[in-house]
Amino acid sequence: MTTPDTTLVIGATGTTGRRVTAGLVAEGHRVKAAGRSATPMEGAEAVRFDWNEPATWDEALDGVDRAYLIPPIGSSDPAAVMLPFLRKARARGVRRAVLLSSSAIPAGGPAVGQVHEALPGLFEEWAVLRPSWFMQNFAGLTPHARGIRDEGAILTASGDGRVAFIDAEDIAAVAVRALTDGQAPDTDLILTGPQTLSYDDVAAIITEITGRPVVHKRLTFEELRDRWAAEIPLEFATMLAGMDRAIAGGAEDRTSDTVERLTGRPPGTFRAFVEREVR
Asked: In what order do the strands lie in the sheet with 125-131?
């Protein structure tokens, strides 16, 4: 039997998942925090979940009526595992689904774009979050953060292209609204920060705030693809490098009012993020 207002958060320990979980719990909502290790999270019920292990799906779906969906990491064909799960979720009583996608991938596009296209036909209430590039890409153990610490450089194939980087805190705040408001968005939502920045701008801000000299090193598409391919499958590396090439062509040079419209507050700035999280 489905318990009203219980949310399954897939990827609950990840960059947005842990923030979505915390936001839901803070508002008094019931949460099943799903991940491969069933890591305990304050105020939530931990449950083991793996996209590639269908035996874990039933327990994760038990008693939930809405879900926050993080696609399998590093997969160039997430629809192959996600669509069977989503059909099962619908049959088990999930009525609202919020999918994390990307501003670079439209409905019907590659990878998670195939899931995006299918979502409205599977659920009566839905939203697809399409955030721009995460500010968190420059902190922690990410490739850009390692490059900043180890080489004093941010390596991209983006040229002079500009991106309205967004804080994961703002993505999560929108996700909480999309999951719990009385009316679901029933659309896709482009999420951005308040201003567009080139990677030269990013390097300059990090240098100014941290006192650590950082430069933007410009690579070709092929150089970046091959660098990625040393760590991840070639097909996925090619897709990521292609996204940088699209940035160079102006694909991400835009801002939206979605964060403020849905949460009632403006999105955080990149400068504030660096002051808070970049070391």
From this structure: 45-48, 30-35, 6-10, 66-69, 96-100, 125-131, 187-191
